[in-house]
Amino acid sequence: MSETEYLNRRVEKPISETARYWKVMNFYERFEQIVALMLSFVIAIIIVVALFRLMHEVIVLLMSSGLNPLQFDVFQGLFGMIMTLLIAMEFKHSIIRVIHRKVHIIQVKTVLMIAQLALARKFIILDFKTTSAMEVFSLGFVVLVLAIAHWLLRERDRIEEQDEKFVDNLEDRTE
Question: Which residue ranges traverse the bilayer (predicted)?
Answer without folding.
Answer: 34-54, 74-91, 103-124, 136-153
